């Protein structure tokens, strides 16, 4: 029985030998000069780019659980800042989605499952004693619109980003790909120019 990894490696060898990669060749600069922060949900893997008319090379896409920017100096913000200053991105789109797994995520249930998979209760207690608030670290959100807007505000108000950067908030329907605009960043960016 082939392992998942061996199946991937076998496919990859054929992919390279057949030069299938040639159809995906592009540069590191996003052609549409945008960054998309979105969820890692499997339903969005192919749906989101197709629903947004994106091809390989059009956008920098940053994925995490819930499309949430949680820390102003975390890896998501670092990626956004690099995309703006080093890769010429001019707009940011935060795209959450309905029926997200982060809605109502319960830290205690996650930690219970971690213990069932071999993480000791002592380790969890050690992390808590070390000042890591596991309930905060593993919390989800109650409302996707509020979560998207929280991330939009954090990006818009970041001290290392230009105030006239357009940061938009959208929510996608994971079945149809339909986008609901929650907040267009154009008005905010134009007001910030003054």
From TrEMBL:
Q: SUPFAM superfamilies per the record? A: beta-carbonic anhydrase, cab
Q: Which InterPro entries has this protein been placed in?
A: Carbonic_anhydrase (IPR001765), Carbonic_anhydrase_sf (IPR036874)
State its Enzyme Commission number(s). 4.2.1.1
Does the keyword Zinc feature in the UniProt annotation?
Answer: yes
Task: Give the cofactors, semicolon-separated.
Answer: Zn(2+)
Q: Which reaction does it catalyse?
A: hydrogencarbonate + H(+) = CO2 + H2O
Membrane spanning residue stretches: none
Q: Which UniProt keywords apply?
A: Metal-binding, Zinc
A Pfam family it matches: Pro_CA
Q: CDD domains from the entry?
A: beta_CA_cladeD
Q: Which family does it belong to?
A: Belongs to the beta-class carbonic anhydrase family.
Name of protein: carbonic anhydrase
